[in-house]
Here is the input.
Amino acid sequence: MFFHIVLERNMQLHPRHFGRDLRDKLVAKLMKDVEGTCSGRHGFIVAITGIESVGKGLIRDGTGFVTFPVKYQCVVFRPFKGEILEAVVTMVNKMGFFAEAGPVQIFVSNHLIPDDMEFQSGDIPNYTTSDGSVKIQKDSEVRLKIIGTRVDATEIFCIGTIKDDFLGVISDPGATS
Amino acid sequence: MGSIEPFNRLVKLAARAFYDDITTKGENQPKTGRSDNRGIAVVILDALTRRQWVREEDLAKDLKLHTKQLRRTLRFFEEEKLVTRDHRKETAKGAKIYNAAVAATADGQQTGREGDEKLKMHTHSYCCLDYAQIYDVVRYRLHRMKKKLKDELESKNTVQEYICPNCSKRYTALDALRLISPYDEYFHCESCNGVLVAESDKLAAQELGDGDDNARRRRHENLKDMLTKMEEQLKPLIDQLARVKDLPVPEFGSLQAWELRANAAGRSVNGDLNANDPSKSSQGLGFGGTPMPYVGETKVEVAFSGIDQKGENVKSANSSAPMKVLPPWMIKEGMNLTKEQRGETKVETKGGSLTASELSDDKKSTTANDDAKNIQDEYVKAYYAALLMRQREQEEAVKKEQESGNAAMSNEAYNTSTERQVGMKSKREDDYEGDDNEWEEAPPTGGTTEHFKVKDLNVEAEASEDDEDDIDWEEG
Here is the structure.
């Protein structure tokens, strides 16, 4: 799920940036530092949408670096248990398949794939129904439900299922191309 | 009482199944024996099945409950979407409207209420069962229960576990990312690089610590037991749901709408002598649907002999179908109708306005309003019994005629019925009279239909005659 929230961060800025465009430099560095990171609490920081406020800088003794407390608005993405996501399959193996929904990696084990889908090894490993009408392989898009998340300080990993109503392949790249 | 009965049964079953041990006390309050109010929820729901819209104070009084307690339970039910509530500020006058509505629907069976002549503005709350929603809520609840148990049983939404056969280190699917190897399609143990195997009959991985095989098996057993037990114990409820499935849901509408209808109906029931123009007083709302008052309990038993008894039987035999009051001319023999549908109340209104006016001539002083109503009731019932029989005959006759290919005859038969629609009001009485003389003696033949038709046509003039007949009936 996406959220638009305000976060705060202490930015250390090198003295060489002190000048007219100190603020721009600060923001650029913030974006570089923060976007794409993941915190266990808030999820993935997708993008910074604005700066709320920049506090008073504090000069560090000895180094000359200055610390600014910066409040910024950003879009974060945090997967939740029970959430339905659409994801792109990245890898298929005997144990199940991996998929990505944006920055989040999701593993769907073969127990959570409908029973009528069989693993087919070969050049392009895939899961296929007995009549061959539905096929899950690399780059397939699937709709899945998250049934478990593991949230570390810097990483979120999910396991999902497609063994439920309205879940499974939503478009087959083999069929369209 | 018709099609609300299955729904009431549903409510009662659901109450006993799910709300039996609901206590409305907060967690922090000491649970002494006295404050233990479990079961009250069931009592309240049961009471509500016997009412329509009811003011909460009145309900509390009837149940001898404290208003606060009742309100707390009702709020709970509102959250559970079993009841709809309405709050409004009203003066004594507003209360009177409601009282009138209740009186109108109570059919003279006023339940221990008093006048409540309050002059202050008070916020009154009203509540009413929401049958449509109850049906859905119960179904949803059952569905969720079953789904949850089944999911657990099939370990559908549980986290897969993997185990290393060499060092018996265990992993869960959440570790999958670290376990994949670039060389083959299996998971490999982090410590010994052995190929992991999926743990097969695993259950409810929420209890990751509890890896003991026995415990797991026990758990499985427990789940299975629970599922079968659930199915067993909730069977009556499920059956009732199935029974109710195709029935139209009784609908009371919002409080205001209900009051309006009830009041209007009540006015005409009570024989509004001035508004003797029935087309104005009753017809407008009559066909739309007069509300069924206090549905569960108002039952007027008429101990008649002969015809009426038969009529009763027919009615009860057909008692499972839509709640709308059907206009009498729409009632055909094959229909499943309840008494309410037959428009008991409504017809009372019709008959009421007529008979009441007649009665007023000689009996006004002696007959109380209630008596008049009872008489009307009985009269109406008898009338309907007769009407039903007659319609059946008519239809049979029509059938026969059609069989014999006598198109003209059947047309005529139909004509009679349409005729009745048009001139219904006054003719009705006559129909009745003609009928119940007729159907007992005359076997259903084409000839009879003809006969009826003739009667129907010269109806208007006979209306007065009918009344005497009517009164005789009551007294005899």
